[in-house]
Amino acid sequence: MDMDETSKHALQEAITLAKSFKEQGKITILHVINREIAPDAVETTVDLESKLHEETNAYLTKVKNVVEKANLAVEIVALEGFAATKILDFEKKNPVDFIVIGHHNRKGLDRIVVGSVSKKIIHDAACPVIVVK
What we know:
- By secondary structure, this protein is α/β, with parallel strands linked by helices.
- The chain has helices at residues 5-19, 45-69, 83-93, 108-114, 117-124; strands at 26-33, 73-80, 99-102, 129-132.
- This is UspA domain-containing protein.
């Protein structure tokens, strides 16, 4: 999960779906920090590392609270690397019923640099994938 409106919509969809599983409904929020596209607004690598982890922890705490308010179990996972690869690795190593992911519809240079994470997940995931715009 990243920090934009599309992800917020995906979270709401995941909450709706998880509620349909009654007592067994659980959401795993997976956030991947991609250092290759992190902002250059910091002076040192240590500053970058600290800033990324601080922002990630604050954001994931807010997301966790949203899920808990919906009376659902929630697990928070933060990884570092390329988002599609890390999501697919997580799916292979953990019991995942389905993946809910936002689609950004990036264009131009942004699409070339970042690629389409949702497209790779749709193509390579073993479980069903729900894409939310």
